[in-house]
Write a structure and sequence with these properties.
Layout lengths: L2 E5 L11 H10 L4 E8 L8 H6 L4 E6 L1 H5 L3 H14 L3 E5 L2 H14 L3 E8 L5 E5 L4 E5 L7 E4 L14 E4 L32 E5 L9 H11 L2 E4 L1 H5 L20 E5 L5 H4 L7 E6 L6 H4 L2 E4 L2 H14 L1
Parallel strand pairs: 1-2, 1-4, 2-3, 3-9, 4-8, 5-8, 10-11, 10-12, 12-13, 13-14
Antiparallel strand pairs: 5-6, 6-7
Bound molecules: flavin-adenine dinucleotide.
Cofactor: FAD
Protein name: Electron transfer flavoprotein alpha subunit apoprotein
Keywords: Electron transport, FAD, Flavoprotein, Transport
């Protein structure tokens, strides 16, 4: 069976791999034998090995060099392009993060290959599913040139273990001058939140303009913490300064697809739906019974969020 290269996204501080990598390894099994590619600083692969073996990596290509960390995304694209030329894989699967999509685009250009981004599923025949036009159209596509490259949307595949050998092979890192064209000069490590990452969380609680102030977002955070959930926000909420822009869900924000999405004080505009409508179960809290979010919601509560949300938090915490 042909290899399928899977670009590994590592957790910061050597704490294993991100869930997106386990999803990509799971999806890649439909296309062939997953071969994980770890491209990072010296020692990067050490913390990843056990999970890669558990989730089906038949091989692990290890490309470790300070240069990979020092020059943004271009080195990762070059490592992958070298492996595509050497190993002739059946396909390449990359998590659909902002970095993953940039690596994928560069790889497609370097290898003259077709690229399908944000896919939610891929079949053994290589047919990918994409959700387009704010979720109103489902598109099935195939790559017709080069080595098919897919970026996999987070939370669209359930990671399932499939123990494999994870045989390691070291890959020499030799960067071109072009890959050194943009250098990292400084890194500020964000303070780590105890909440899960928005795009990876199983539960997301999002607040909208109805929350009415930055201070009042504490009730959204309270519900999220009682459920072990991530916090999201509508664009109206972030534009009003209630919550940071990095937490925006929607067409121009992040796309989430959790098991449970709770929309609080959010009307359900098409641009917001674009980022959350593939959530498995949607709950809406809104004081307006005509709010469009109720058309999409599996469960709706008509009421004032200032009463409903604290009561829900209290009931959940009491369990
Ligand atoms: P509103 O539409 O003002 O809704 C607030 C809701 O809160 C209302 O339904 C109201 O009934 C309810 N409410 C008020 N008070 C209470 C209360 N006390 N209790 C319960 N309910 C209450 N939006 C996004 O979210 N994400 C995007 O990525 C995004 N991208 C965009 C891109 C473009 C190009 C454009 C044009 C728009 C984009 N928007 C996006 C904006 C989008 O069109 C909406 O304006 C926005 O989603 C509205 O946010 P909201 O639902 O929080 O606010």
């Amino acid at each position: 069976m042909a290899e399928v290269l899977v670009l590994v996204e590592l957790n910061p501080a050597g704490e294993g791999v991100r869930k997106t990598t386990l999803e990509a390894l799971t999806a890649a099994r439909a296309l062939g034998e997953p071969a994980a590619v770890v491209a990072g600083a010296p020692g990067a692969a050490a913390g990843a090995r056990a999970q890669l073996a558990e989730y089906g990596a038949v091989k692990v290509y290890v490309a470790e060099s300070d240069d990979i960390e020092n020059y943004l995304v271009a080195p990762k694209a070059e490592v992958l392009a070298g492996l595509v030329a050497d190993k002739q894989p059946a396909a390449v699967v990359i998590p659909s993060s902002p970095e993953g999509k940039e690596v994928a685009a560069r790889l497609a250009v370097k290898t003259g290959s077709g690229l399908l981004t944000d896919v939610t599923e891929v079949t053994a025949e290589g047919t990918a599913t994409q959700v387009a036009f704010a979720g109103q159209t489902i598109v099935h596509s195939k790559v017709t040139a080069g080595t098919p490259i897919y970026t996999l949307r987070g939370n669209s595949v359930t990671p399932t273990p499939a123990p494999a050998a994870a045989a390691e092979e070291t890959v020499a890192v030799q960067l071109s001058d072009a890959a050194r064209a943009t250098k990292v000069v400084d890194r500020v490590v964000e303070q780590k939140s105890s909440r899960p990452e928005l795009t990876e969380a199983a539960i997301v609680v999002s607040g909208g303009r109805g929350v009415a102030s930055a201070e009042n977002f504490a009730i959204i955070e309270g519900l999220a913490d009682s459920l072990g959930a991530a916090v999201g926000a509508s664009r109206a909420a972030v534009d009003s300064g209630y919550y940071p822009h990095t937490f925006q869900v929607g067409q121009t924000g992040k796309t989430v697809s959790p098991q449970l999405y709770i929309a609080v004080g959010i009307s359900g505009a098409i641009q917001h739906r674009a980022g959350m409508q593939t959530s498995k179960t949607i709950v809406a809290v809104n004081k307006d019974p005509e709010a469009p979010i109720f058309e999409l919601a599996d469960f709706g509560i008509v009421g004032d969020l200032n009463t409903v949300v604290p009561a829900a938090t209290e009931a959940i915490t009491a369990r």
